[in-house]
Amino acid sequence: MTAPRFEDVVPSPDALMGVKAVFGPLRGRAVCFSSRGNAAAKDRSHFRSARIAAEYAVEQPFLIAIGGGAHVRDDLGGHVLNVARVSKVYGETPVFYTDPDEVRRLAQWPVATALLDVYQVDGLPHLVDDLGLPDRTILANAFDIVVRPPDKVAALWEALRGRTLSLPDVPPLPNFREPEGVTLVGSLLPKKHTGEEGRRIAREVQLFERRSDLAREARRLNREANGGSLVCECCTYSDNVDGMFDVHHLVPLMLGVRETTLSDLAVLCPLCHRWAHKKGGGQTDPLPLAAVRAARRVAGGSPPTH
After folding, report:
1. Are residues 174 and 217 in the same domain?
2. 169 and 36, same structural domain?
3. CA pair distance 81, 64, nearest whole angstrom
């Protein structure tokens, strides 16, 4: 698979919210900030920087992480490390990290905004030596907030054109669902409504014995009476495919063993069949066909849309 180029991920400078100074390559799916208010009270100002990043993410979802600060690791100061797509979810930093050591390391940055995608810029180019920018002043004030000096961000975007990106080993937030709007989370992240399906299992069940020959004959007689097509006896829906119709027992089988005749059966579309059972008085008291017809037929006798 061909590595994406920077401009394939970030289509224009207008998609960039700005740059953020970091001590090293991003290790998790969140970008962290210091508190701007009362951390103990968790007031609105406490989350201010993280909230602003989430708000910018609505229109300008990408940020560029650049090594900076007195404690930057491995002589990475001034090197472009990551490109990240920012989420609209923000909250306290421990919500986004499960590693206790990482949480302790990030204690001075107690609030964060989630990241949806994290890319590494191949070669970790230096702003001046490799990208040809005149200086590193784009990082001014970029330690606690995301900054966006427009001319410098546009020049950085142009300088990164053609650079390839790779996917570092940064695990995604588990089962994370991006919300429609900017969202402050507490201890739980928004989750996708997913669940494993399709596993084959063995199950012992009891079924009521049914006579398939009687069902076939009921369908045959229905076709014969309707010019070769099957027609629902309640809503008049018509089709030529047998599987589009059920054979309904007017007296439910669960009432006990009996001798079934063709007059005990009705050919119904699946919706009318379900209507008879679900709208009736319970499993042993289905709705009479006349009541189903009255409910399902539209004015003029035309069949409803299935």
Report:
1. no
2. yes
3. 8
115 neighbors 26 (Cβ within 8 angstroms): yes
The pLDDT tens digits along the chain (306 residues) read 688 999 999 999 999 999 999 999 998 999 999 998 988 888 999 999 999 999 999 999 999 999 998 888 889 999 999 999 999 999 999 999 878 888 888 888 999 999 999 999 999 999 999 999 999 999 999 988 999 999 999 999 999 999 999 999 888 888 899 999 999 998 888 877 666 777 888 877 666 677 889 999 999 999 999 999 999 999 999 999 999 999 999 988 888 888 889 999 999 999 999 999 999 887 789 999 999 999 887 533 445 555
179 and 238 in a single domain? The answer is no
Give the SS3 label for residue 37: coil
What's the pTM value of the predicted model, to 2 decimals? Answer: 0.65
Same-domain check for residues 174 and 254:
no
Residue 292 sits in the same domain as residue 160: no
